[in-house]
Amino acid sequence: MKKDRFNDFDKEVRDLVLDFERTVLKGERQFYDIDELEVIIDYYLEVNDQEPLEQAIRYAEYLYPDSTEVRIRRAHQLISQQFVEMAIDLLQELREREPDNTDIAYSLGVAYGAKDEPEKAISLYEEALADGWMPGRVYSNIAEEYYKLADYPQAIAYYEMALHYDPGDEVSIYNYYDTCLIARRLEQAVTTLTDLTKKDPYNRHAWYVLGMAQRELGLYDRAADALQFAIAIDKSFVDAYVALSQVQDLAGDTPQAVTTMLRLLDHTDMHDRVYRTVGNLYARDGNFDTAMLYYRKAIDHNPADAEAFAASGMCYLHLGDLPSALASVRKALNLEDALVEQRGDGGDAEVFFAAALVHDAAGHFDMASECYERMILAQNCNEAQCQAYTQFLFDHQVYDILIEFGEESLALYPRDTFYSTYLAAAYFYTNRYNKARKMLPDVDPQLLSELCPGIIAHPLLGPLVPPPADPKDPLGEW
């Protein structure tokens, strides 16, 4: 069902925009006062519809050539078109005439934010707060600039102020959660979002994000309750169904996770994704025959579903049918190549990962290597897939590439013993003992003994390997 473009706007906006489109956009003259034209222009700015936006601004400039508000909106249009310097020049000119106009200060803040100069943007936003105009929006913008500066505590504080003034602002709600997630301040997020749901019990976004935060903390029962509230408020809240299913899966209740996903069939046209997700749930539970039934349903709904073919290949591999596994991943790769050309991106890591595992099992080293390399370049490549690639390189003794990839990964995850351990083993097997020695304080001794018994027995390096953690010692892992 096509969404009404005015769903997020009130009747006044709808009536004015439709009247403007019936008259001015068709070449007729129609008088609007300045306030009405501002409403019309703001609508087109909000939906980023550039052609009618340009006509609306030109018409406003024709009727009100000296209007500061119209020129400010011209500046916002320039920002939306990436002509930031031109917008700044226009706003600075206006600022010289009206130095106390906080609308100009706010707009300059937007411009400098777009120019990626967060300190200037923050200063201008603070100035714009002087007249108390829409503090929720201004505080949210300030929070975004602190986020750019990686000053997450300040960003969190300003998002909380934004939500105090505008608790229904979904952009602030989601950005607040993302910032708390990065800063590992999820307990604080749960407290704030719980308060938000008490003040506004019908805020589906607050309930949804509260559930996400509780999920990250392992509070699965509470997370499920919060997500159920979000669904009760909006029966068609697709993301909430998906998140609830994930929570139920994490809690070990696969049947309920499946039921939740299948409920989603009544609220989305993307049946292929629903069936594929259900297949994934059964596959993770080791029920590969049932998983295959759902992957076939996904393919029936979308014959170009590369992920479903790739997942089918993994199921065939687990079921011991290597020829069918190879046929499925080859089909997946062909489909993904066509999709990559169409989308212009790096492809889907899940497809390349499945193809790599199947080709590796078939002894096709070169093809498996190519798939792993494409997986690494894909935008949605995850840490588990990167670790699988590391293991693949080690198993095939491709130590030089492993070392290069491991060093890059260790720079991203400096406290990750996985990469330190594999690097120590790879350095040892390539006779780079000094480099191996530097890794030893941060290795997993149990994993290292499996990968490289020789380093444990080495008279100089062996004593430097930390002892295995005592499972009875709660501080052993530290």
Question: Characteristics of this structure?
Answer:
single chain; 478 residues; mainly alpha; disordered C terminus
Strand and helix map with partners:
Blueprint lengths: L10 H12 L11 H14 L2 H14 L4 H13 L3 H14 L4 H13 L3 H11 L6 H14 L3 H14 L4 H14 L2 H14 L4 H13 L3 H14 L4 H13 L3 H10 L7 H14 L3 H14 L4 H13 L3 H22 L5 H13 L3 H13 L5 H13 L3 H14 L4 H13 L3 H7 L5 H7 L1 H5 L21
Helix pairs in contact: 1-2, 2-3, 2-4, 3-4, 4-5, 4-6, 5-6, 6-7, 7-8, 8-9, 9-10, 10-11, 10-12, 11-12, 12-13, 12-14, 13-14, 14-15, 15-16, 16-17, 16-18, 17-18, 18-19, 18-20, 19-20, 20-21, 22-23, 22-24, 23-24, 24-25, 24-26
Describe the structure concisely:
By secondary structure, this protein is mainly α.
3D structure, described in words:
- By secondary structure, the protein is mainly alpha-helical.
- Helix content is 72%, strand content 0%.
- The chain contains 27 helices and no strands.
- Helix 8 (135-148) runs antiparallel to helix 9, helix 15 packs antiparallel against helix 16 and helix 16 (271-284) runs parallel beside helix 18.
- The chain is globular, with a radius of gyration of 28 Å.
- The two termini are 54 Å apart.
- The relative contact order is 0.03.
- Residues 472-478 have low confidence and may be disordered.
